Amino acid sequence: MSSTLFRTKKVEQSISDTEEPEHALKKSLSALDLTVFGVGVIIGTGIFVLTGTVAKDNAGPATALAFVAAGVACALAALCYAEFASTVPVAGSAYTFSYASIGELPAWIIGWDLVLEFALGTAVVAVGWSGYIQSLLENAGWTMPAALGSREGADVFGFDILAAALVLVLTAILVIGMKLSARITSVVVAIKVTVVLVVIVAGAFLIEGKNYDPFIPKEKPVEAGSSLDSPLIQLMFGWAPSNFGVMGIFTAASVVFFAFIGFDVVATAAEETKNPQRDMPRGILGSLVICTTLYVLVSIVVTGMQNYTKLDVDAPLAEAFKATGHPWFAGFISFGAAVGLTTVCMILLLGQTRVFFAMSRDGLLPRFFSHVHPRFKTPHRPTILLGVIIAVVAGFTPLTELAALVNIGTLFAFVVVAIGVIILRRTRPDLPRAFRTPWVPVLPILSVCASLWLMINLPAETWVRFAIWMAVGFLVYFLYGRTHSRLARREAGEEQPSVGGGTP
């Protein structure tokens, strides 16, 4: 039983499976495309919102250090992802990496986890985008009918038609082709990076040195009902997470980590990259460096413009400009956020469809979804299915409480990938590696520890919901996936390996 649950799929076989005509994705992406994808999905509302929250509740002006700490934690994971993505250039990201190193059941678990992570991420971002658009429309004097707008706090049952429409339009773009998606992403990313740079440059002239004193506030009373009060943390460590000082910086890092979510999505496009061995590490690490730099600069500017105790937690950048006598920047920032969220939504949807496609191609999900479009060479069936489901979810369901599941799902994937690097180094030392994670096993172990530390900073209810989703995943695997696995069928002689592959 245990031998079948932890059977691994050879890297050579995974690559051979991508060459089957009916299951082959079109290779059209370059290192620049991957970097743009990374920047496009990482820079979203986090940079415009989280800065004020953690500065006021945790780190003060030292919020910049919190972004650095979160960036370092992500960099540790990114180095592990870079090795796997260049060595196993197959769609599926952490799912595929786990299948090649740890085994089928762990691969299923991480794939099931990623499906939830990307689905909720897409829906949450779509709802956030709808909110920004409605705000801009209200500024122009037009208000959406309550039945067609956001449901948060509404007195009537409604359907967020803007959120649903965005998901459906992006679904159509992804079906048509990756190159079109890359071109649209490039334009949108250029717009939102320009907005961020304008904010940094303009805000730099409004900085007052006194706002940085003290740079690391020592303490502040815990605010009752704060969203940062984690029962799990208080139970395990006996200190309140909204305290200030050095510990406040690390707690802030666990919160701003949400702003970095997405760089791992780049790895899901490995199979559609022209030269994955060279370009995947560049795309993953390059996008992370760019975004970390922008985050640090924004946090330095906003805490320098306005004292951290006075920052607004909903729109810190916009309110800081208003407080310094430049109210027109509020609309400019809202426009940048709304434009930027379109790429976040599209790339998260892209990541989910590729994971679903990879699991289907391996037989762990119905193989009906593993066939590519005869003309566009995209996984159109899972893209349409998931796009419609997410559009309905985004339209009907308030997702504020479920957003934290995106964090825990991402961190769980980081842990599995880091462990996978260590295992594959031992089991397949002969495997050609275009990029090698340095200081193995020390660096992957540090990545595991950093991710686990951030995970335990999440609320206890998030862990409960995550456990429920995992339990459902186990049920689906044992009722369907284990018996329909192509690897199991090959071992039983019911299916021949792809040409150039080989049985595990």
Q: Would you kindly provide a written description of the structure presented here, covering whatever features stand out?
A:
With 504 residues, this protein is mainly α. The protein is built from 19 helices and no strands. The protein has helices at 2-5, 11-17, 31-42, 45-59, 63-87, 94-101, 104-139, 161-176, 178-204, 231-237, 246-256, 276-305, 316-323, 328-361, 380-396, 404-427, 442-455, 460-484, 486-491. The chain is globular. The model is unreliable at 221-241 and 500-504 (pLDDT under 50).
Largest sheet: none
Specify the number of helices: 19
Mean pLDDT: 84
Q: Which percent band covers the strand fraction? A: under 5%
Low-confidence stretches: 221-241, 500-504
Q: How helix-rich are the residues, as a percent range?
A: 55-70%
Determine Rg (CA atoms, Å): 22 Å
Shape: globular
The end-to-end span amounts to 17 Å
**H and E string:** HHHHHHHHHHHHHHHHHHH
Q: Class by helix and strand content? A: mainly alpha
Strands, count: 0
